[in-house]
Write a structure and sequence with these properties.
This protein has helices spanning about 40-50, 70-80, 95-105, 110-120, 135-150, 165-180, 195-200, and strands at about 5-15, 15-25, 30-35, 55-60, 65, 80-85, 155-160, 185-190, 205-210, 210-215. The chain is α/β, with parallel strands linked by helices. It has a domain at about 5-85 and about 155-225: Rossmann fold. The protein has a 6-stranded mixed β-sheet, sandwiched between helices. Strands 2-1-4-5 form a 4-stranded antiparallel β-sheet, covered by helices on one side. Strand 7 (about 155-160), helix 6 and strand 8 (about 185-190) form a beta-alpha-beta unit. The chain is globular.
């Protein structure tokens, strides 16, 4: 059974349809890449799965349970983690306080922060720093830590390399590979940086105008730049 199963998913904004009948199956510990240029619906797809944008048709199942009509908070407690584009850390809170807010929302006890620091050693030096003075890469690590504290089954990761330095991208690749080796977490990864996407994904689906137009199984040899979107 797939840990995440999406059938005929449709959503949009008011009368404007953006996601048009998307089907996705995700296995335990699988990394699925989602590729497409700006305006093709990638972030809206992630927001719809997370519950930020309401579903107008179709179904979303997480670990066998239908979460289509659940709120964002209830989806998170069911095991769906979401790291949005732009990271959205609390700038006036320290890294530790950011984690505690996420911990409270997830209903976890104090062991959560220790587990996240163990999994993400890079987050340790950020615990006493204010979120607003962190670099883009540091904020991305913190945002990932906030997500991990809820012990998700699936993480939706939207444009993690946006605004971060190439050296931090490499660190992010190693961090995600480490998480994969230590857990059974699955990740849906939206990214326009092709090499980043290829370095982590088992499969890549190509999104065009809100629909999956193709799937790339042989990721290592995929020439995504040649795809006409």
């Amino acid at each position: 059974m797939s840990v995440l199963s999406i059938k005929g998913l449709r959503s949009g904004y008011g009368d404007i349809a953006v996601i048009n009948g998307v089907d996705i199956e995700l296995a335990d510990n699988e990394f699925l890449g989602v590729f497409g240029h700006n305006g093709m619906g990638k972030s809206t797809l992630m927001k719809t799965i997370a519950g930020v944008v309401p579903t107008t048709a179709g179904h979303i199942h997480l670990a066998g349970a239908d979460i289509t009509s659940r709120t964002v908070a209830k989806r998170a407690r069911a095991g769906l983690g979401y790291v949005p584009q732009g990271r959205q850390v609390y700038p006036n809170l320290t890294g530790e306080e950011n984690l505690k807010v996420a911990q409270l929302g997830a209903g976890r006890d104090g062991a959560g922060i220790e587990a996240v620091v163990s999994m993400l050693p890079r987050i340790g030096p950020l615990l006493k720093r204010m979120g607003g003075v962190m670099s883009g890469g540091e904020q991305q690590i913190l945002a990932l830590g906030r997500c991990l504290i809820a012990a998700p089954r699936v993480i939706l990761l939207d444009e993690p390399t946006e605004g971060i330095q190439p050296s931090i991208r490499e660190e992010m690749i190693e961090t995600l590979k480490h998480i994969r080796s230590q857990t059974t977490i699955s990740i849906v990864l939206v990214e326009q940086n092709i090499e980043f996407l290829k370095s982590l994904s088992d499969r890549i689906v190509v999104l065009q105008k809100g629909s999956v137009v193709s799937e790339v199984a042989d990721v290592s040899s995929a020439d995504l730049e040649s795809i006409d979107l």
